[in-house]
Amino acid sequence: MAVVHEQINSMADFTEFDTMFAAAESRLDLNFFSEVPDITTTEQKKEYYRAQIESAFAGTWPLQNAGETLFFYKGVYDGVTMEFCGGFIEADGITFRGHWYLTAPDSNGSRNVIHTADTATSRRAFYTTHGLSRYKVLTYVGSSMDQWMKLRIGDGSIVEVSRTETPMGDKTHITYHLEV
Predict the structure, then answer these.
(1) Is the pLDDT of residue 118 over 80?
(2) Are the C-beta atoms of 58 and 77 separated by less than 8 Å?
(3) How far apart, in whole angstroms, are the C-alpha atoms of residue 70 and residue 137?
(4) pLDDT of residue 31
(5) What is the rounded CA–CA span in Å between residue 131 and residue 90?
(6) Can you tell me the distance from the alpha carbon of 7 to that of 128, in angstroms, rounded to the nearest whole number?
(7) For the CA atoms of 86, 75, 115, 54, what is the dihedral angle to 10 degrees?
(8) Residue 1 pLDDT > 80, yes or no?
(9) Given 11, 16, 28, 108, which is the most exposed site by the fewest CB atoms within 10 A?
């Protein structure tokens, strides 16, 4: 399978947003929208998520720190966009901190190709092209993303540098610090 990672410079470059959002909504309900009050319909969720991304492109997203650079990309697998990731390159210039992540299944209904060695190699080469050697994943302890991270660290496909856990209300926020 041919895997290509492409940088996205605006929402206009991400014409697949509606399709990707629809494919990822159930996962977002577990890991993202469970923390956003008063948003219940699919249309509300899609507009909220889109507004978050658009505010990052506009430079008005509140969690962007001074000296950080916006960085978004998509993964295209045999011509089909199956992965979207966005966040910021931190002020150190070598660390990508992801905030938005959407995945869609292939024609067989599987997302497994996103986690293959070929995909990891392609993603690493893409990150390296942009001067990145580290990245951070932010999630909650016990979320499906947390479970996925532990699985991938355990099987050696992701190299963990460290992790930090911070209590936030009734949940614990976890940040994974990883090598590209």
Answers:
(1) yes
(2) no
(3) 15
(4) 75
(5) 12
(6) 13
(7) 20
(8) no
(9) 108
